[in-house]
Specification:
α1 (about 1-15) packs antiparallel against α8 (about 130-150), α3 (about 30-45) runs parallel beside α8 and α5 (about 70-85) packs parallel to α8 (about 130-150). The chain is mainly α. The chain is built from 13 helices and no strands. About 75% of the residues lie in helices and about 0% in strands.
């Protein structure tokens, strides 16, 4: 993780500063891709590619330039990203090829945040599946994976043992005679001469091989087809700096030269076009004059017929207006007629309807019954009043008769 953070800070430092310095110090995707490929081979990604990516291996320019199939390139990047995140001991589920690319990029950026890898690139650059952003992310993950894995041990270099002919033991006490020395010395010189001549012959053979004309056995048409396939992948796109005034000046000069080269040809073509157009206009005007001179009477008749047609159209419009006014009046009269018919229908129904008469008879019966009940009640009340009056009158008579009786007793 410390390696990843250190490399992440280096990426941030490369992005910070002035625009010119940042552009010069920006990481080169081509150089990063070579390092990424070597690191992935050390991590053993080839087995992963054979199992999960149908054996498709990376090449040096795979994530440097855009692929003819961008979805396939982006899917390859996500699979390598998931593999490296697993080696960095972070959980990241490898997305499917048909998942939404925007959600996949958001998950990638979230995984980088969880791994505390700060990369100042937008999601659109990561979504492209190639370029500086993708190479920087993969390089940081490869460094972290190499730091987390077991250290790679390289065995000590074993040099081959020098095989020399065994020398005969020399007796120091023994004296070498002059005859033996004379016989041995010329043999050594002869061997050296033979070796020198042999090496000169080999050099001559190699020179003859190099100077020999090389004849290729490859079909030139197949070679051209292969070059056309590979050429777009080998092009390196460098974004021009629009702020540089020299580029603007060179571009304007190129445009000026192009315009100067194309102006004479354009003038000739426009001159020819102008002559053809003027000739066509003259022919049309002459033809128009001849037609007008030949068909004067027909034109007059046409104008007369057109004037008559206009008068007829005016009269038609006036009659049409009158018809519309009469139709509106007819509609009003028909509406009034319908209202009168509805009123007459209601009155006829009311005249033939016996319901009100029946209700009136029932009401009269109820009133008569109520009158009888009232008469009965009045009779009973009057009878009771009469009894009360009679009782009162009797009481008064008794009171009057009592003092008379008392006087008589006295």
């Amino acid at each position: 993780l410390e390696v990843i953070r250190r490399n992440g800070s280096m990426a941030e430092a490369a992005e910070a500063g002035d625009a010119g310095d940042a552009r010069e110090d920006a990481p080169n995707p081509m150089a990063l891709m070579g390092d990424i490929l070597d690191k992935l081979k050390i991590l053993g990604y080839e087995e992963f590619a054979h199992k999960n990516l149908d054996g498709r291996l990376l090449h040096v320019a795979y994530f440097v330039v855009p692929h003819p199939k961008p979805n396939e390139q982006f899917h390859y990047f996500t699979q390598i990203f998931a593999y490296l995140m697993k080696l960095n001991k972070f959980s990241f589920e490898a997305p499917d090829e048909f998942d939404d690319p925007n959600s996949t990029v958001a998950n990638v950026m979230e995984a980088l945040r969880r791994a505390r890898i700060t990369v100042d690139y937008s999601q659109a650059k990561v979504r492209a599946g190639h370029g500086e952003a993708v190479c920087v992310i993969l390089n940081l993950l490869c460094d972290g994976a190499l730091a987390n894995t077991t250290p790679i041990k390289f065995s000590q270099i074993e040099y081959p043992s020098d095989v020399y002919p065994e020398e005969a033991p020399i007796d120091d006490d023994e004296e070498v005679s002059a005859d033996i020395a004379d016989t041995v010395a010329p043999t050594v010189e002869d061997d050296e001469d033979d070796d020198y001549q042999h090496s000169r012959a080999e050099v001559k053979k190699e020179d003859s091989k190099e100077t020999k004309i090389i004849e290729s056995s490859i079909d030139p048409t197949a070679w051209k087809v292969e070059v056309e396939k590979v050429a777009p992948l080998l092009k390196m796109r460098m974004d021009p700096d629009n702020k540089e005034w020299r580029t603007h000046l060179e571009h304007t000069k190129e445009l000026q030269e192009n315009i100067k080269g194309k102006v004479p040809m354009a003038k000739e073509q426009l001159g020819k076009l102008a002559t053809t157009i003027s000739a066509a206009i003259e022919a049309i005007s002459s033809r128009e004059k001849t037609i007008n001179s030949q068909y004067k009477d027909e034109v007059k008749e046409y104008h007369q017929v057109q004037e008559g047609l206009q008068e007829v159209m005016k009269s038609y419009d006036e009659r049409n207006r009158e018809v519309s006014t009469l139709n509106s009046a007819l509609q009003q009269i028909s509406e009034q007629l319908e209202t009168i018919k509805s009123q007459s229908d209601e009155r006829g129904e009311s005249m033939t309807d016996t319901g009100p008469l029946v209700r009136l008879k029932d009401a009269m019966k109820k009133i008569k019954k109520e009158i009888k009940e009232m008469d009965l009640r009045i009779g009973t009340v009057s009878h009771n009043l009469l009894h009360i009056k009679m009782a009162l009158s009797n009481d008064k008579g008794d009171t009057r008769n009592k003092p008379d009786d008392d006087e008589e007793d006295d």
